[in-house]
Amino acid sequence: MPKRPATHLLYLHGFRSSPQSMKARLVAEHVRQHRPDIQWWCPQLPPSPREAMDGVMRGIADWPRESMAVIGSSLGGFYATYVAAMTRCRAALLNPAVNPARDLARYIGEQTAWHDPQQHFFFRPEFIDELRALEVGELSRPERVFAILAKGDEVLDWREMSARYPGSRIRLLEGGDHALSDFAAKHLDDVMRFVDPR
After folding, report:
1. What is the C-alpha separation between 163 and 154, in angstroms, rounded?
2. If I label 50, which of 84, 94, 122, 127 is the partner at 20 to 30 A Cα–Cα?
3. In angstroms, rounded to a whole number, what is the distance separating the alpha carbons of residues 90 and 80?
4. Are 158 and 133 in contact, with CB atoms under 8 Å apart?
């Protein structure tokens, strides 16, 4: 199947994050400079996983599956995996959460947003079941996934992340961190080449 340039690109941020995250802004700027013709969407995701994915799937309902792509970071990587399973689109995952129902259980209660500590939200107990409902098995088109995983991730286990995506392209970083602080210098161009092959 010939590779198609992207026409639509979705970015999904992580837990407590926003479209103001470093990586989201870097991708947005790259699209603005190099591919202004791409339809770009980076929504602010609500705390409820069900509401988040319902809103995303409504928003991309009429996007062309063969020329759309999704990038997801951390919890957004878990959501992007769901989107990829539903649409079979290309997906780039940046230190993706693989078992957020387990990992986020300890965050039930009031939380603050990373980029605006004045902004509070409540992570409810029922959100854990909503996360479980979004779990998908092995992807039918694993070759359409590119995952960047840092062994130095202080939040998620790179072994779990790596084992989650058999058959996918994986870049395993010897060091690094959860935020992928070197994203602009070392990974942005490769991510964009993967989601927007030309």
Report:
1. 18
2. 94
3. 10
4. no
Length of the chain: 198
Question: What's the burial of 47, exposed, middle or buried (CB within 10 Å: 0-12/13-18/19+)?
Answer: middle
pLDDT in tens, the chain (198 residues): 457 899 999 999 999 899 999 999 999 999 999 999 999 999 999 999 999 999 999 999 999 999 999 999 999 999 999 999 999 999 999 999 999 999 999 999 888 877 777 788 888 999 999 999 999 999 999 999 999 999 999 999 999 999 999 999 999 999 999 999 999 999 999 999 999 998
The residue among 20, 95, 34, 148 whose CA lies nearest residue 9 is 34
Q: Token pair of 73, please?
A: 């970071």
Residues whose CB is less than 8 angstroms from the CB of residue 162 and which lie 6 or more positions away in sequence, other chains included: 147, 149, 170, 172
Burial pattern 116-148, b for ≥16 Cβ within 10 A else e, equals eeeeeeebeeebbebbeebeeeebeeeebbbbb
173 CA to centre of own chain:
18
- Which run of H or of E encompasses 157? none
Q: How many CB atoms lie within 10 A of CB 68?
A: 23
CA distance 136 to 69: 18
